[in-house]
Each structure stands twice: as structure tokens, then as C-alpha cells.
Backbone:
């Protein structure tokens, strides 16, 4: 009999939470024979809505769910968790500067990092979704000194999935034909989806789609601005696709990647000239023992290097502002 995997989700009553919890509970994240215990974390004003979400989870009678905890107490919410999915964060309001947002959310992620440090399993893995997710993840990592840095992640998988579909539609092939596509840098419009190393079937993307101008001047900005396009169309930000990307990220960090790479923001050790110590998106592979590694030997053009450097520069600036405000 398998022990349940205990998963904490913050912002559990929010839009992404509502799209995410049912997929975790159904087995999409850890497989159809892996029991899960859900620790649902909200802030006090969200607790009533959270009770409703928990009622709906109950009403699904998911056979894999062993327990549902609802709390606004972080020491309860992160107790003994195997995964902490940090989705909740304070949205930017009218008149709020980016620096204000970094400071406000920074405080939240200091508190969550500490609570994870003190309550979660030592093997806990932390995936930050709430924006600015890279810098929030860095702050949580710094605030959890007993948890190895390699156990902190931020999410760029939605950007990777968006990029794959754009390329597939342009080439007129099913999306599963697109592989080896890494989004580099910050989860922000500055990110770089590396079409030069990606493949369609066995061919290079640039051999199938020979329109360089489209790749550079349409594809790259369309991927970077996709979040805004969704807001414009739907009147609300991406939720089901973001939740799907959380499922993809956790599932793919939990199983061997058999040669495929995926975009995950991890702490940089200076790979490919990225500034050491920031949490930035890199091409990740998982080996048979379940350990992730940055894929080696990716050849980056001067164009790609410039794009990646610009996105990482933004991360250095975010770090400076946030750490300055938080006194880290
Ligand atoms: P919602 O505003 O619908 O939900 C957020 C929920 O978090 C609310 O229920 C709120 O009460 C709760 N919350 C706020 N502060 C909290 C705290 N300190 N502890 C626990 N819960 C807290 O937002 P939603 O659409 O679900 O988006 C959540 C976050 O994901 C946002 O920061 C958003 O910017 C970010 N996104 C990140 C993406 C990525 O690819 N990394 C893509 C989608 C999304 O934009």
C-alpha cells in the first residue's frame, strides 16, 4: 500500500486553485494509483470560499484523496508536506508600482519560506506560481536555510506549452511533434522561447519554419504577451492552462525525462553564463534516480544569448529591489 503524497496549495480558493485541485485529486499529477493528501491554504478572507471548494472536492468522492486540510495557519498548512505549490499572491492593483508589489509579495514569501523550513518534510519540493514567481521563489528559498536550494522551483512550463502550440500551429502539425523547447530567463514578457534548438518531429524547427522574421518578430513576442492576450479575451487571467502547467511541471520533475527537456526555473549555478544564485528558467532533465540536472551542451546563438541575458538582467534588478525592501 502506497503512503499518500501530501501536497500543500496556497491560494487554494483562487482561480488557479480551483482548476488545479481537482486534477491533483484525480491522479493527473502523481498517477492513478498514488494516494494524495491535500493541505489547502488560504488567507482569512478566502476561508469561506475555500470551504466551498473543499465541499466540491468531497462531492467528487475521489478514491485517491486520503485527507483534506483547510487552514490559514502556515504551520498547519505546511506540516509534513512533500510538495508545496505556492500559487496565492497579491495581485498588482491600480497605482501600485512594481517595486511595491515585490515588497508586498516578498513579505508573504519570507513567511511561507520560514514556515516550510520549520514544518515541511526535509525532502519537500517547492514550486512557486504566484507572481513575480522567480523572485518569490528566490525569497522563499533564502528564508528556508535548512532546505536545499535545489528543492525550489518557479514555473515557466505554461510559457513552454504556449510556445509549442504556436510552433505546431504554424507548421500545421499536432503539438506532440514539438519537442526540446526551452523557455529561458524570467517568467515575464522578457522570457526567451528557444526555437533554434527545438524540434518538430526529427527536424529542427528552423528547417520546418524557414520564416526567420516570423520566428523572431511574431513567435517570440506572441509567447511573451500570451498572458495579456488571455486577459483581454477572457476578462480574467489564465487559470486552467496555468493549473495544467503546474500538473505538467510536478509530474515531469517526479519522473525520468527520457531525453526530453522541460523549462523549469531553478537556482542558477552559472550555467550558460546565467548569473549565479538567481532562480531562472533553464532546460531541465530528470535522471532515473529522480534527480534533476540542467541539460549540458545546448548551443546558443548570439541572438539567443542576448535575449537570455536581457531577461536575466531583469531578474537581477528584481532581486535587488526585493532584497533591498526586505533587508535580505
Ligand atoms: P486569484 O486572485 O484568483 O487567487 C489567488 C488566491 O490566493 C486568492 O484566493 C487569495 O485569497 C489567495 N491568497 C492571496 N495571498 C495569499 C497568501 N499569502 N497565502 C495564501 N493564499 C493567498 O489568482 P489566480 O488567478 O489563481 O493566480 C494566482 C497567481 O498565479 C497570481 O500571482 C498570478 O499572477 C500567477 N500566475 C502565474 C503564472 C505562471 O505561469 N507562473 C501564470 C498564471 C498566473 O498569472
Residues:
Amino acid at each position: 500500500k502506497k503512503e499518500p503524497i501530501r501536497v500543500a496549495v496556497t491560494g487554494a480558493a483562487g482561480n488557479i486553485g480551483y482548476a488545479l485541485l481537482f486534477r491533483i485529486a484525480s491522479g493527473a499529477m502523481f498517477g492513478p494509483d498514488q494516494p494524495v493528501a491535500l493541505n489547502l491554504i488560504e488567507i482569512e478572507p478566502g476561508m469561506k470560499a475555500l470551504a466551498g471548494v473543499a465541499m466540491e472536492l468531497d462531492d467528487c468522492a475521489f478514491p485517491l484523496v486520503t485527507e483534506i486540510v483547510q487552514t490559514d495557519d502556515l504551520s498547519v498548512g505546511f506540516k509534513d508536506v512533500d510538495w508545496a505549490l505556492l500559487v496565492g499572491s497579491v495581485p498588482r492593483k491600480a497605482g501600485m508600482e512594481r517595486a511595491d508589489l515585490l515588497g508586498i509579495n516578498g513579505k508573504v514569501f519570507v513567511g511561507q519560506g520560514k514556515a516550510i523550513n520549520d514544518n515541511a518534510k526535509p525532502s519537500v519540493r517547492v514550486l512557486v506560481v504566484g507572481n513575480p514567481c522567480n523572485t518569490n521563489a528566490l525569497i522563499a528559498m533564502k528564508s528556508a536555510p535548512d532546505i536545499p536550494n535545489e528543492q525550489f522551483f518557479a514555473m515557466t512550463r505554461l510559457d513552454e506549452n504556449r510556445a509549442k502550440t504556436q510552433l505546431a500551429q504554424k507548421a500545421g502539425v499536432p503539438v506532440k511533434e514539438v519537442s526540446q523547447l526551452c523557455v529561458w530567463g524570467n517568467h515575464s514578457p522578457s522570457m526567451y522561447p528557444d526555437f533554434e534548438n527545438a524540434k518538430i518531429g526529427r527536424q529542427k524547427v528552423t528547417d520546418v519554419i524557414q520564416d526567420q522574421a516570423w520566428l523572431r518578430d511574431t513567435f517570440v513576442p506572441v509567447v511573451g504577451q500570451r498572458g495579456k492576450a488571455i486577459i483581454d479575451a477572457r476578462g480574467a487571467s489564465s487559470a486552467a492552462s496555468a493549473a495544467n502547467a503546474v500538473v505538467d511541471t510536478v509530474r515531469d520533475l517526479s519522473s525520468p525525462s527520457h531525453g526530453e527537456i522541460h523549462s523549469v526555473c531553478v537556482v542558477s549555478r552559472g550555467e550558460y553564463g546565467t548569473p549565479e544564485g538567481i532562480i531562472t528558467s533553464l532546460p531541465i532533465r530528470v535522471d532515473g534516480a529522480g534527480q534533476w540536472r540542467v541539460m549540458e551542451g545546448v548551443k546558443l546563438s548570439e541572438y539567443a544569448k542576448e535575449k537570455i541575458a536581457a531577461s536575466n538582467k531583469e531578474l537581477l534588478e528584481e532581486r535587488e529591489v526585493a532584497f533591498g525592501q526586505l533587508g535580505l
User: Anything to note?
Assistant: The pocket of NAX is lined by residues 10-11, 13-17, 41-43, 46, 87-91, 108, 129-131, 133, 155, 158, 187, 227, 237-239, 242 (CB under 6 Å). The longest strand covers residues 279-286. Residues 157-318 form a domain with the L-2-Hydroxyisocaproate Dehydrogenase; Chain A, domain 2 fold (CATH 3.90.110.10).
